[in-house]
Amino acid sequence: MPEHHRKSARILLVLLLVVNILAVLGLFCSYAAQYIDPRDAWIFALFGLIYPWLLMLNLVFVLIWLILWKKYALLSLVAILIGWNQLSTIIRFDYNKSILPPGQNILLVTYNVHGFSGQGQAGRNVRAEVTEFLAEERPTILCFQEYRIREADFEPVLRNMANSMQLPYWNARDYYESDPSGGLNGLVTFSALPIVRQGTLSNKGLSHFALFSDIVMKQDTIRVFNMHLASLRLGKQDVDFYYQLKKNETQNIRLKEGVFSILRKLKQAFLLRAAQTELLINVINSSPYPVLVCGDMNDSPFSYTYHRLTEKLKDAYREAGEGFLGTTYDGILPNYRIDYILFGKGFKAYEYKKINVTFSDHYPVSGVMMVQ
Questions:
Q1: Nearest alpha-carbon partner for 45 in 54, 56, 55, 34
Q2: pTM of the full structure
Q3: Considering only CA atoms, which of 221, 223, 219 is closest in space to residue 189?
Q4: Does residue 195 have a pLDDT over 60?
Q5: How many CB atoms lie within 10 A of CB 278?
Q6: Measured between alpha carbons, how far is 45 from 232 in angstroms, rounded to an integer?
Q7: What residues are paired with 207 via a beta bridge?
Q8: Which domains does the chain have, with CATH numbers?
């Protein structure tokens, strides 16, 4: 090989190695995102958000170095293995299914219904379709987020839906104390079992982001939290900008303004979710009853929010799911599993699944839980 070719090859290898080292550092930053409060250093939360891309980039480097027969493959391989616990939040490797014993079993379903607006198809009665679908699922407890009733007198609507699904008890709360448009837009928990106490959580007088329901079973009382943590609230310009970038249509966009607009909203959401998470954890810890926590976390399994909530709670997917679940949100940022069923002591998970229906920009998830 001529000298200039060897020199070019060495420069290329050095460049590959430098980029590989940066990819490994990015991966470690994504691991750190679980432990660093965004209110202290929000940039780490951004690395947590892009963990899957960092993971894939490092896998590509492992493949490249193996093809080139270079020991540098160990750089990314070791980094990936160090984050094995993080990898297990998106892929469940244990396929040994437990047999559900007889006892006090609960089928819990959580679903962000996106205001019953569907996926843009005109003329659909999405609320009726969702009601019919869930009546067939026959859940014991059903938690809705973004539940929208436009009728000013919404009690009859709730009652009719409850009767259709054979879930006669409910706990409903608007996101805001007073909605000038009337109706209901917020969180609703339906139950086949009596709800004897209820409460809401809000952050510094802002919108309610969770409610809890104390539900009486035959021998026990449980507390079910229905949560909807802070979202990005991307505007139409942000969404258009994202899809133009995705299609490489950059000639007619203001790149700097678009990027900073999305980053600013990401930062605001990271900070607000961190505050909501701490308040939610405090209320969970003070519960006199075993707790179930479900709903739309608006955050990935690689986040500070998820890590804090699962320090004492278990994730039903990691306990009883199968394989690669994929996303529960058919939108942008974060396009991962963001809808969860978590549980504390006193419960055991026997099943977890995503239900592939398209009534919303989210997919419902369900879990079979046994009270121990």
A1: 34
A2: 0.89
A3: 223
A4: yes
A5: 14
A6: 13
A7: none
A8: 3-87 (no CATH), 105-236+240-371 (3.60.10.10)
- Could you tell me the strand order of the sheet in which 291-296 lies? 195-202, 208-216, 221-228, 291-296, 339-343, 314-315
Which range has the worst mean pLDDT, 86-100, 105-119, 144-158, 313-327?
86-100
Average pLDDT over residues 243-260: 61
Taking each helix axis from N to C end, the angle separating 236-246 and 255-285, rounded to the nearest 10 degrees, works out to 110
Q: What percent of the chain has pLDDT over 90?
A: 57
Calculate the alpha carbon distances from 223 to 141, 239, 342, 372 in Å.
Answer: 11, 37, 12, 14
Q: How far is CA 80 from the centre of its chain?
A: 22
- Residue 340 C-beta-side C-alpha neighbours within 13 Å: 28
How long, in residues, is the chain?
A: 372
